[in-house]
Amino acid sequence: MSRSVALAVNGRTDIGQVREENEDAITWFAHPEQPFAYVVVADGMGGYSGGSLASRITIQTLSLCFSQLITPTFLACSPEQQKLMIDAAVRSGIYKANHAIIDAKADNPDFAHMGTTVVLTVVWKDQLTVAHVGDSRAYHWSLKGLTQLTRDHSVVQEMIDAGTLSEEAARTSEVRNHITRALGVHDDVEPELKSYRLTDSALLMLCSDGLTEYLDNHELQHVLATHRPALECCYRLIDEANHGGGKDNISVGIMEVTVGARSSVAPVAPSQTADGEDTTIRRN
Predict the structure, then answer these.
(1) Residues sharing a CB contact under 8 Å with residue 158, sequence separation 6 or more, in sequence order
(2) Are 167 and 156 contacting, i.e. CB atoms less than 8 angstroms apart?
(3) CATH code for the domain in which residue 177 is found
């Protein structure tokens, strides 16, 4: 039997201290009546406003797919069927966003090199779905500690996995901005999708790499564990990255999940949007 779940969401994107344009985009939503919420973060690339277009296309496409999910038919289905429907919506949304970006590139030569990463979380009752393409990340924090839910699709991650590069060295590597998977590059893109059951109250944090370039997992855990109200962690984390140099755009989304007893926490800004290949793709 599913436990009672209360969901609250918040997010922010910031241009940082160096870039002239914000190519990140973020959107978040919490249903006013059902235990359903999502956060999507996209980190665009390509210049000439192409990166910002790619990230906007992605969050808008996924938001549309998710907005059509909670229907009487969905509510009447079994938990197993609901999970399959959520997974299908995630895959469909990423597929459609990928092709919408490719179509936009075909219409404008200036956008020839644009693409975007994406990371998202969808929560329905006590069921968590996480999907990503690229090196934007999702984390889970509870009283048990911090867990990174995604594994970067990047050159440095492959080097770490092969044992030729340490995680510490990866943060300053000359190829740290080279990703191996992105939307808008090939006709076929394969998101990495995972599912979890939420058994305890937790915070879910999604971010672009403009944050993780400056804060390691220990520093992220410290902020998520100590800064309250919890939904304002997104502001604190972005401030920390900007104080560290802010060389890239920075986006952070926070979902507060309260499992068990009925919660008095109300969603903050329940629906918001902010803009900002086996091939190696380098973000400028």
Answers:
(1) 180
(2) no
(3) 3.60.40.10
Given a contact cutoff of 8 angstroms between Cβ atoms, the answer to whether 248 and 209 are in contact is yes
Query: What is the count of structural domains for the chain?
Result: 1
Q: Which one, of 272, 254, 247, 159, lies nearest residue 203 by Cα?
A: 254
Token duo for residue 5? 């779940």
Stated pTM of the model = 0.90
CA distances in angstroms from 21 to 18, 65, 209, listed in the order given: 9, 27, 16
Domain that holds residue 193: 6-275
Residue 284 lies in a domain: no
Whole-angstrom CA distances from 186 to 40, 113, 249, 257 are 21, 12, 25, 35
Residues 172-195 pLDDT 10s? 676 777 889 999 999 999 999 999
Per-residue pLDDT tens over the stretch 49-102: 799 999 999 999 999 999 999 999 999 999 999 999 999 999 999 999 999 999
Going 174 to 146 to 137 to 248, the CA torsion angle's sign is: negative
